[in-house]
């Protein structure tokens, strides 16, 4: 399986509902065929808490090594993805919520004074809660209290959760809001990155050139390439290869396709090159990866 997104990489999964927009979910990286979930974003805040193992978590241009007992605050609208660390599974809990649970309505003093400054600070995409600062300990305790509240199924569950979220936000406001304010250029460039990801999603099976991608966001080729590498910490070519390999895993789970067919379906015109890149990224050829998935057709 993989996270379902629209053409702009926005996750389509509902996080709660309008009446109470909060979702707490137990997750395992191994439920994704490749041991990773692809780049996506959503307008909700996401708190991640590692319950077993380790993982690599990327938010915008930042990379975090999360270990058991660590947490992560992910801000609204950030691009993020996660993958296994050392090819080992990782179990984690996600608390995803609409920040209006904290501020009520947009014109409120709560929104203007306490929530808006954090939501609109693009220089604060995430905070790694790993105990390196004193306030991390009570913040992590509040996340575990949220998980405990979910298990207890109290009559006052919704009220209890809002209280815990507001206590967490208070810590965040007091200690995590010192990051520099966003620049208009950074914000615009991340919008361009989303457009690039959307273009790759819609065209990965075809020939993808720097010229085509640059034209799609109305930049020259050199600026497009420079911007992508600055914010994504890899070249466009490297990202396209990585994305195509991740998409190929969806086809490997279907025994109706042979390896050569899959290579062409994800944009590789040479099946030998596809196998080479797959082995480099996944540590084994696609045929062995397929056998591990339980499929039978290889040739």
Automatic annotation (TrEMBL):
InterPro entries the record matches: AraC-bd, Homeodomain-like_sf, HTH-like, HTH_AraC, HTH_AraC-typ_CS, RmlC-like_jellyroll, Tscrpt_reg_AraC-type_HTH
Organism domain of life: Bacteria
Domain named HTH araC/xylS-type: residues: 194-292
Upper classification of the organism: Bacteria, Bacillati, Bacillota, Clostridia, Lachnospirales
Protein name according to UniProt: AraC family transcriptional regulator
Cross-referenced Pfam families: AraC_binding (PF02311), HTH_18 (PF12833)
Matching SMART domains: HTH_ARAC (SM00342)
One GO molecular-function entry: sequence-specific DNA binding
Organism from which the protein derives: Blautia argi
Protein keywords: DNA-binding, Transcription, Transcription regulation
SUPFAM superfamilies per the UniProt record, alphabetical: Homeodomain-like, Regulatory protein AraC
């Amino acid at each position: 399986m993989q996270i379902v997104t629209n053409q702009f990489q926005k996750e389509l999964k509902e996080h709660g509902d309008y009446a109470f927009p909060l979702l707490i979910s137990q997750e395992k990286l191994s439920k994704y065929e490749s041991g990773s979930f692809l780049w996506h974003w959503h307008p909700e805040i996401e708190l991640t808490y590692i319950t077993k193992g380790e993982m690599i978590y990327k938010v915008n241009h930042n990379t975090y090594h999360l270990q058991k007992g660590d947490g992560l605050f992910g801000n609204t609208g950030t691009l993020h993805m996660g993958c296994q660390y050392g090819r080992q599974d990782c179990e984690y809990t996600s608390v995803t919520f609409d920040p209006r649970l904290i501020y009520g309505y947009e014109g409120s003093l709560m929104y203007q004074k306490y929530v808006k400054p954090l939501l609109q600070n693009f220089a604060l995409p995430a905070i790694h809660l790993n105990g390196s600062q004193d306030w991390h300990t009570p913040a992590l305790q509040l996340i575990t209290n949220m998980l405990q509240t979910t298990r207890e199924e109290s009559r006052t569950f919704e009220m209890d959760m809002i209280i815990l979220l507001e206590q967490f936000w208070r810590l965040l406001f007091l200690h995590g809001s010192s990051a520099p304010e966003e620049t208009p250029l950074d914000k615009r460039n991340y919008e361009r990155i989303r457009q690039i990801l959307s273009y790759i999603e819609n065209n990965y099976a075809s020939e993808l050139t720097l010229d085509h991608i640059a034209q799609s966001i109305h930049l020259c080729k050199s600026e497009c390439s420079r911007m992508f590498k600055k914010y994504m910490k890899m070249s466009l070519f490297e990202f396209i290869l990585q994305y195509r390999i991740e998409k190929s895993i969806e086809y490997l789970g279907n025994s109706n396709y042979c390896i050569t067919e899959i290579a062409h379906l994800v944009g590789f015109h040479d099946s030998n090159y596809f196998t080479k890149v797959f082995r480099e990224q996944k540590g084994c050829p696609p045929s062995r990866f397929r056998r591990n998935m339980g499929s039978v057709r290889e040739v």
